[in-house]
Write a structure and sequence with these properties.
Radius of gyration: 17 Å
Distance between the termini: 28 Å
Structural class: mainly alpha
Strand content: under 5%
Number of strands: 0
Mean pLDDT: 77
Number of helices: 3
Order of helices and strands: HHH
Helix content: 55-70%
């Protein structure tokens, strides 16, 4: 399911947000553009940055995006 969502987000980004180098280009679009242009080393380098960022988030845990010392709030359960 997450693979389908990732592909959907990539498609929306490339079609609607654009792919202007240095202006609207995101890192997944850099990987795509470098690979399509024949620069395999450049696409691997950009993909490695994405992998390292993902591993960093996984290692830090769920509170990483909230800042230092912050804890994510617990979801509230309401009677339905």
């Amino acid at each position: 399911m997450s693979w389908a969502r990732a592909l959907g987000e990539f498609g929306a980004t490339i079609m609607f947000a654009g792919n202007l180098a240095g202006q609207t280009q995101t890192l997944p679009l850099v990987v795509y553009g470098e690979f399509q242009g024949g620069d395999l080393d450049g696409s691997i380098a950009a993909a490695a940055i994405l992998v390292l960022a993902a591993l960093g988030v996984l290692v830090r845990g769920p509170g990483a995006a909230l800042g230092p010392g912050a804890r994510p709030s617990k979801p509230r359960v309401t009677a339905g």
